[in-house]
Amino acid sequence: MNELITDVNWIAVVVGAVVAFGVGALWYSPKMFGTKWAEWNGLKLDNPKNMTCAMVLQFIATFLLARVVWVTAKNEALLTLILIIITIMALIISNGKWAQKSRYTIMTDAGFILVMGVIMVIAQAIL
Fold first, then answer.
1. Number of domains in the chain
2. 71-84 b/e (C-beta count within 10 Å ≥ 16 → b)
3. Nearest Cα to 8, choosing from 88, 82, 60, 63?
4. DSSP 48
């Protein structure tokens, strides 16, 4: 429990979360994967109906992942972090398969988890 509250590198956690969240906005935009991802999910990018709650929850989850990355960095547990990232990706993939989503949408979502983890590790390394 102590590793959750002492010696927190708040700059790295916040920067990692904010940058990863921002990259997510680009990742799911029409400039990258958003148009096809939305189409395959039956969504319209130009009509973000009721997305405020989803965006708030996404930021909270992104922040929590940044904290997990910090805990593993502080404890020099890179392999644990890799296991956590792979686990989250596997859950996204299995959930997408269960929901019968396209391979494209599943890999877009799972790939973003990997990108978020890399961004957060870099933030921990340089800040």
1. 1
2. bbbeeeeeeebeeb
3. 63
4. -
Q: Locate tokens 């890179």: which residue?
A: 78
The length of the chain in residues reads 127
How far is residue 16's CA from residue 41's CA, in Å, rounded to a whole number? 28
User: What does pTM read for this prediction?
Assistant: 0.90
**Tokens representing 46?**
């130009």
**Considering the chain, what is the average pLDDT of its residues?**
92
115 within 8 A of 23, measured Cβ to Cβ = yes
Give the confidence band of 25 by pLDDT, cuts at 50, 70, 90. Answer: very high
The whole-angstrom separation of Cα 104 and Cα 14 is 30
Helix (H, G, I), strand (E, B), or coil: what is residue 29? coil
Whole-number pLDDT of residue 36:
94
Asked if residue 51 lies in contact with residue 25, where contact means CB atoms within 8 angstroms, the answer is no
Domain that holds residue 67: 2-18+27-126
- What pLDDT is recorded for position 107? 97
- Overall average pLDDT of the 42-64 stretch: 84
CA distance 120 to 45: 27
